[in-house]
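Researcher: We're teaching a course module on how sequence relates to structure. For the next exercise, students receive a sequence and then see the predicted structure as C-alpha cells, so they can try to spot secondary structure elements on their own. Here is the exercise chain.
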Amino acid sequence: WMDKVLSHGWAYGHNGIALRGKSLMWAVTTGGGESHFDIGSFPGFPVLAQPLQATALYCGMKWLPPFAMHCTFICDDEPLQAQARRYRQRLIDWQEAHQNG
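Model: And here is the predicted structure for the students to work with:
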C-alpha cells in the first residue's frame, strides 16, 4: 500500500502535504519473542522500525513509538486479549491527548 499512498505530490514532494502533521504508529505482531531481535550487528526490535520512521518523517508525520506484540505464534486467547486491551488503551490515550489539539 505504501506505493499507492506515499505518492509524490500527495504525501511528499511539491504540494505533497496530505500527511504532514499526522501521527503514525506502527502496530506489528511477531511470531517470536522480543529477544529474537537482539541478534546481529544492529540488535533490537526498534531497528526494524527505522525505515518506517524515516518514511514518516520524510512525509512530515509525527512518529509514535511502535506497538509490538511478540510470540503470537504460540499465544493463546488470554495473552492475545490482554494485548488487545493494551493496544486499545494506547489508542484511547492518544485520542484523548489530541482531542483539543
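Model: If you want an answer key for the exercise: Helices lie at 2-5, 45-58, 77-98. The first strand starts at residue 23 and ends at 24.
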